Amino acid sequence: MFVSQCQTRAYNRLRFRRCWGDGLSFEDTNYFFGRAIDVMDVGRNIEDLLVTPDRSVSVKIPLEMDDGRIRVFEGYRVQHNNARGPFKGGLRYAAEVDLDEVQSLASLMTWKTALARLPYGGAKGGISVDVRELSRDELERLTRQFVNRIHEFIGPHTDIPAPDMNTNAQVMAWIMDQYSLLHGHSPAVVTGKPIDLYGAEGRESATGRGVVYVIEELLKDEGRDIKETTFAIQGLGNVGSYTVRFLDELGAKIVAVSDVSGSVYEAEGLPVREILKYVSGGNLIKGYADSTTITNEEILTLPVDVLIPAAIGSVVNETNMHEVEASYIVEAANSPVTPRADEYLKDKGVVIVPDILANVGGVVVSYFEWVQNLQRFSWKEKQANAELHATITEAYRKVRKLAKRRNLDLRIAAFVLAIGRVGKATVLRGIH
Ligand code: GLU
Question: How far does Cα 59 stand from its chain's mean position?
Answer without folding.
Answer: 23
